[in-house]
Design a protein that fits this description.
The chain is of the alpha+beta class. The chain has 33 helices and 42 strands. The strands form 10 sheets. Strands 1, 2, 3, 4, 5, 6, 9, 10 and 13 form a 9-stranded mixed sheet that branches. Helix 2 crosses helix 3 (60-69), helix 18 (597-609) crosses helix 22 (680-697) and helix 23 (705-720) packs across helix 24. 41% of the residues are buried.
């Protein structure tokens, strides 16, 4: 059966063109299908405008004709869904493409994406990657993309649920997967988005006009993707084709056809109108907005995914009404009334994730009835059963329909609830099976990529449901009177008087027995040393955490509260064993209620996000031999518990942990920072204290010392340094806070690590970044104080030495616009980076004179060189280009500088990327130790606080030869005039502090190298006179 029904005229439905992609297009082109080709048909329909798409999809008669055109007999989405979508005027619910799908009579799936020509041109004329919102009835949170150099990347996002049961999926015309370690411009590491892949590679089946009308958009797409001159790079086209057709089994005819077509379009594209040459060619403008990169350290995803890109999630879900979503039995009948009949009891399968309550399966029916109902009977304490019976109707008002068990009956005398038996098993059972067998008993994953997509889909859906629950926030506190949660039994009650820790580990510590036994009281009083960093004893941490989590104390009761499941980890989430759209059910509401969401999130974050840590004693028995070795070494040494900790999380675990942080914790933090900023510190303290409890007070590891010390180490790190630990374990560095702005009073910013303490320069940089990105605030025009000197540099280094000043200034403006997106520092915003400043330093002439007077070569390095302007000034003034080097943490500046100076493919100056604040700076740059006679840095050190400044100076000293000179320009002084002296003259300079450091000698003491130096600086006295001060310092390094 073909894709299109020849009896239906596509023109009558408004189509300009219909294209067929995927494996089916391959079959059409080579007249054969590879084995295993699926039964899916994927097409692209192009209409003129959005209104044409709306008319086609909403009009019942036209939509029926569309189904006939595609041979669809069963639509995937109900017709009303599209009407609801089109009628929805919520701005966040807007769409650009509609994915329409259904089943044909032969069982094949027929899909077509409806895209307007208007939006195609809009997207492809945007020089930056353009977001494409796809309305779909199918939820697709994880999309694989391939690049031949980087392998597979998982593009993960949280689809937005909109009217009609539809989702808004996030696609882009181009995704940048660039490896941050490369500085080579030709290696763009960009891949096409799903929709644009169809646009470029599909076979044209129908068109209303000359079939070449698709040439301009296809050509523009190639120019945007590969640059204007990809044919000059023999690898570019080959890599592009390989990123589209991954398998070598595809017929060579298809590859050849595509290559010829792309060559033709590229040649055509050389004449396509560009919005800006600099924007079209500048790879730094091709970047993914609002994404985070997680690169796996272990290859236990079995190869397919080498990295994961996470799109920014929706904002925090605000409060909605309290209307129940599903009918709830609020007064179930009593089992003791004699109205029911039962079959024999069937015990539930034991699971390491089961709660302490007892349960069994049975069949139940009303007395005299004919139909039996599969039932699940839960037996617990009278208080727990009463509370759960109370909470079920409340929770049901917030959870989506069909995600809760139906309460059939209860028995007050036997303390039991009877609920419908749910299909499947706990999510953590699937996690455990996959961790141990790389597959699941009830599911067969074709690949690890297939498995990851399944787990990601579930976590995305869970995050949405948590958002619905947490939306019952502070404003509704009065309406939830009487719902104070029993969640504190997991935290405060276990901490109080060390009840839980004593129960599990008294009288001796796991791993120490016999003559080596360590008594309980002695152990909890020992300090800890994890990876060389010391932490307080457990006794001290427990007492502090107890004060934080006291429900009647000074911290927890003051935090905003909301509805929560209380115990919503993966062991209490039932999943049906289906590959596509598995059903999700939440169970066990004994701890549900009204409490802090940061307390509520702790258990699912630790038990699910740190799954191989919490269940190490189980997962370490895996058939995978690499899992036998514990990621922890422990000992007691010098009166401390010493731990050496490896990376405990696999790539799959990192992804799940990252998703919980990005899609559940981050919206909570943003809501708190925006509405209740004064509670931000308490929120972090409550979460870190609760995570400590989860790690140390959840499971009994008395017979598993490796698991005990592993959880202790991870829990202590999370408790004492939550933000840095989350970054260490799963790469999440997205903790938000609020900054004041002059535009909208305040704006959310993301400061990684623990950074709420900012220098004025750092605050200014972050603020400008917000203004620039949020409200499109462009800087003022380029202003150069030293235009003649700047033009001289360009005349020296540009391929075209006869350029006009206007051309040079335009390139500087392009470089500044790009540089601001890389790092919006003041020196870039105000064009300082583009003009030489090094010769303003009082040491400059001495450096040049010293170099010229020596009979041997002298070398110079610029630490924090940015785009290399000062280095080029040195060359113009006679410093040999082979004797200088530029170092900077941001390697993108090197390419921006090369483009700004129009140097061609390579720069004559040597640059290297390095981080001067890296604790391993010396080890990573061993070849540069004591290599340079002159070490220069300008407008950098003021960016750091005291510790960072000291680390930066140490790195400078490491680079300097004994007797070498280190000279620094530090900005940030008041904008009045400062007098600086040289041996021959006095000059004035605005807003700078000039410092010169002379390393005088090497000394060797106890195997440690030391450089002693004299610092000559300038400081202002109370009488506004400047005087010279002398200070002594030293650098120490191994």
């Amino acid at each position: 059966m073909p894709y299109l029904n020849s009896s239906i005229d596509p023109n009558s439905l408004g189509f300009l063109a219909i294209l067929l992609g995927g494996s089916r297009a391959h079959c059409l082109q080579v007249q054969s299908c590879p084995e295993g080709v699926d039964r899916d048909w994927d097409g692209l329909g192009i209409l003129q405008s959005r209104s044409n798409i709306e008319r086609l999809i909403v009009n019942d008669k036209l939509r029926a004709s569309l189904c006939s055109l595609l041979h669809i007999v069963n639509e995937e989405a109900p017709g009303d869904s599209w009407t609801d979508l089109v009628d929805n005027d919520v701005e966040e619910d807007t769409w650009d493409v509609i994915r329409f799908s259904g089943r044909a009579a032969d069982g094949s799936k027929r899909t077509i994406k409806l895209w307007s020509l208007d939006h195609i041109l809009q997207a492809l004329n945007d020089p930056a990657p353009h977001l494409i919102k796809v309305a779909s009835f199918r939820n697709v949170p994880c999309c694989p993309r391939f690049h031949p150099r980087l392998g597979w990347t998982a593009l993960v996002h949280q689809p937005r649920r909109v009217a009609g049961g539809l989702f808004i999926l996030q696609d882009r015309d181009i995704f940048l997967l660039k490896d941050p370690s490369t500085t080579t411009k030709s290696l763009r590491y960009a891949v096409l988005g799903v929709t644009c892949d169809l646009l470029l590679t599909s076979v044209l089946l129908f068109h209303t006009s000359f079939h070449r009308f698709l040439d301009p958009p296809r050509s523009r797409l190639l120019v945007k993707w590969l640059g204007r001159y990809p044919l000059l790079n023999p690898d570019a086209l080959d890599e592009a084709i390989k990123s589209i057709y991954k398998s070598e089994t595809y017929h060579p005819t298809l590859r050849k056809n595509l290559e010829n077509e792309m060559r033709r379009l590229i040649c055509l594209g050389a004449g396509v109108s560009q919005k800006s040459d600099s924007e079209a060619d500048d790879e730094t403008s091709i970047q993914i907005s609002g994404t985070l990169l997680v690169t796996g350290e272990h290859n236990d995803i079995q190869g397919p995914y080498n990295r994961f890109l996470f799109e920014a999630p929706p904002t925090f879900i605000q409060s909605n009404d309290n209307t129940p979503l599903i009918p709830v039995v609020t007064n179930p009948p009593d089992l003791g009334s004699g109205e029911f009949e039962f079959t024999s009891e069937e015990l539930t399968n034991p699971s390491p994730f089961s709660s302490n309550s007892q349960s069994y399966f049975t069949h139940i029916r009303t007395k005299g009835g004919t139909e039996w109902t599969n039932a699940f009977v839960k037996v617990s304490s009278a208080a727990s059963i009463k509370w759960e019976r109370k909470m079920l109707p409340v929770i049901s008002t917030r959870i989506s329909p069909g995600m809760l068990p139906n309460l059939l009956a209860y028995n007050a005398d036997l303390n039991s609830l009877v609920m419908t038996r749910l299909p499947g098993k706990p999510l953590n059972d699937f996690r455990l099976e996959y961790a141990m067998m790389r597959n699941c008993e009830d599911l067969t994953f074709k690949s690890s990529r297939d498995a990851l997509r399944w787990f990601v889909d579930i976590e995305i859906r869970r995050a949405h449901e948590y958002g619905l629950l947490y939306s019952v926030g502070k404003d509704l506190a009065d309406a939830l009177e009487g719902l104070d949660s029993p969640i504190h039994k997991f935290y405060y009650d276990r901490l109080h008087n060390d009840v839980r820790f004593t129960k599990h580990y008294y009288p001796t510590t796991p791993g120490f027995s016999g003559d080596n036994a360590v008594q309980f009281d002695d152990f909890i009083a020992l300090p800890w040393k994890i990876d060389g960093v010391e932490y307080p004893p457990l006794q001290e941490s427990f007492r502090k955490a107890e004060r934080i989590l006291d429900p009647h104390g000074q911290v927890l009761p003051k935090l905003w509260a909301c509805l929560g499941l209380g115990d919503g980890h993966g062991g209490n989430v039932m999943i049906s064993p289906k590959k596509q759209d598995p059903a999700i059910f939440f169970i066990d509401f004994e701890a549900a209620g009204h409490h802090s969401p940061f307390l509520d999130l702790a258990k699912p974050l630790y038990l699910d996000g740190f799954f191989p840590v919490m269940y190490h004693d189980i997962t370490s028995t895996s058939s995978d031999p690499t899992s036998e070795r514990a990621p922890v070494l422990w000992r007691i040494d010098d009166g401390k518990v010493c731990i050496d900790l490896d990376a405990p999380l696999s790539d799959l675990d990192k992804v799940i942990c990252f998703m919980k942080l990005e899609y559940t914790l981050k919206p909570l933090l943003e809501y708190t920072a925006w509405n209740l900023e004064e509670q931000m510190e308490s929120a972090g303290n409550v979460l870190s204290a609760a995570l400590l409890c989860c790690a140390l007070l959840t499971r009994d590891f008395s017979r598993h010392p490796d698991s005990f010390f592993l959880n202790c180490a991870v829990g202590i790190l999370l408790y004492n340094d939550l933000k840095d630990s989350l970054k260490r374990f799963c790469g999440w560095d997205n903790w938000p806070c609020v900054v004041e702005t002059s535009i909208n009073d305040k704006e959310l910013a993301l400061f990684g690590g623990g950074g709420f303490s900012l220098t004025p320069e750092q605050f200014d940089t972050q603020l400008f970044s917000i203004l620039f990105n949020k409200v499109d605030l462009e800087p003022d025009s380029v202003f150069l104080r030293r235009l003649d000197d700047t033009l001289l540099l360009h005349k020296k280094f540009s391929k075209d030495s006869n350029e006009s000043p206007a051309v040079v200034v335009r390139r500087i403006g392009d470089a500044r616009r790009t540089g601001i997106r890389v790092a919006p520092h003041t020196c870039i915003r105000e064009s300082i980076f583009a003009e030489p400043r090094i010769d303003h330093h009082f040491q400059y002439q001495e450096v040049q004179e010293t170099r010229r007077s020596r009979p041997y070569r002298m070398t110079l390095v610029d630490l924090g060189c940015c785009m290399g302007t000062d280095l080029r000034k040195l060359v113009v003034d006679g410093f040999p280009v082979l004797d200088i080097m530029g170092l900077d943490i941001e390697n993108r500046f090197f390419d921006i500088g090369r483009l700004m100076y129009n140097e061609g493919d390579t720069s004559s100056i040597k640059f290297k990327q390095t981080d001067a604040l890296d604790p391993l700076f010396c080890e990573r740059n061993a070849s540069l130790e004591s290599k340079f006679d002159f070490v220069h840095s300008a407008n950098v050190v003021h960016l750091f606080q005291t510790e960072g400044q000291l680390a930066f100076i140490r790195s400078m000293a490491f680079l300097a030869k004994p007797g070498g000179l280190m000279w620094v320009v530090k900005s940030g002084w008041p904008m009045d005039q400062m007098v600086r002296s040289t041996s021959t003259k006095k000059e004035r300079v605005l807003g700078s502090q000039l410092t010169s450091l002379r390393s005088s000698s090497w000394m060797l003491r106890d195997g440690v190298k030391r450089i002693s130096y004299i610092a000559l600086s300038w400081s202002r006295t109370a009488s506004y006179e400047w005087r010279s001060l002398t200070r002594i310092g030293c650098y120490s390094g191994q």
